[in-house]
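Forgive a beginner's question, but would it be possible to get any protein sequence you like and the tokens describing how it folds?
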Amino acid sequence: MRTKTMYFSIALLTLFLAIAWAADLSGKWNAEYTTPNGETRQNTFTFQVDGDTLTGTVSSQRGESKIEDGKISGDEITFLVTRNRGGNDVKFHYKGKVNGDEIKFTVTIGEGDRTFEMTAKRAK
């Protein structure tokens, strides 16, 4: 019985720490990156966190897009953004790992046709 109580307490503490940590993502993050075509671009992420749900927007020189299906699990975040390119909707799948004030993303375009890396840093 004592062991079960200890494991339950540890699990509960871990959950509370994960929730507190997740709230730390809220706010603006900036990234400069190179596209698969070799172009340098910038994105601004504006994140809102509610438990393990991530919402917000991604802004670039092409406009602002809403974050869809955003999730947080520990130090990993995932979401997608739909952008219109030449009359076609294209999905950008973001998978990131958070380390302090930095998020390292792998971005997959469409059904995996192209991928690229980017690093976002918390805006000051």
In short: Residues 2-122 form a domain with the Lipocalin fold (CATH 2.40.128.120). The chain has one domain: 2-122. The first helix runs from residue 2 to 23.
